[in-house]
Request: fold
Amino acid sequence: MDWHEKCSEIVIVKEVTSGRGGVKPASVLTRRKTNKMATEKKKPSEKKTYEIVAEPREITGRASRVLRRQGLIPAVVYGPKITTDNLQVGTREFDTVYLRAGSNNLVDLKVGESGKALKVFIHEVQRNPLNHAVTHIDFVAVNLLEEMTINVPLVLVGESPIVESHEGLLLFQIEHVTVRTLPTNVPSLIEVDISGLTEIDQTIRVGDLDIPDDVTLITHAEDPVVKITVVPAVEAEEAEEAEEAEAAGEAEEGATQEGGAAESEETES
Reply:
């Protein structure tokens, strides 16, 4: 099994910034129920997809800089049972689709307007470290009837009362979970509701997340996602001083207004 075939087994989506910035992990998948996985093939459910029209690319290597000056991005598509192809994609078109689809939504990739659409995920995006412009794209083709392993990002929602009152500090311990599901069932993200966190040491674990029934969670259910911890003494003092300063400012403003009103009454009399 070569590397491209392995991509059908596990797809970890990422963004890469060239240079010293290193690799920045991106989207990851999530899902619950660590019990049985379906042994029979399932029919894929309908899900909104996006479309990108690419063109074959003959220019490779450093010469690809010419394409970028023409408003094009070098790309490659690979996957099980398909030939790896070098492509080029319009910068504006890709930016528009990537903004909406991200890395966890299926994209219909066509080579030419009349080309047959391939179901792909945007697997890797490389960017210029100086201007953040996209410099290269990897698309990975998938079989809609075969389950895949993927990462799904976690997004915090709500407000924790104890954090809002500066009595506790929120620690975000993992940014994504790994799940296994059909490509059409991959969640775009998973929400983590922190509004119920009211005490020190209170924790939300992976097993507490609301994961769709058609997604199988691979990340260990006991792994902590977020935790409330004690606010460091320095931060607590700074928060208290800020509140006192704000209260003093309001009191001074009120006194100024009362003094102005009194002067106005004396003038009138």
Observations:
- The radius of gyration is 26 Å.
- Residues 233-268 form the longest helix (36 residues).
- Confidence is low (pLDDT under 50) at residues 1-13, 20-45.
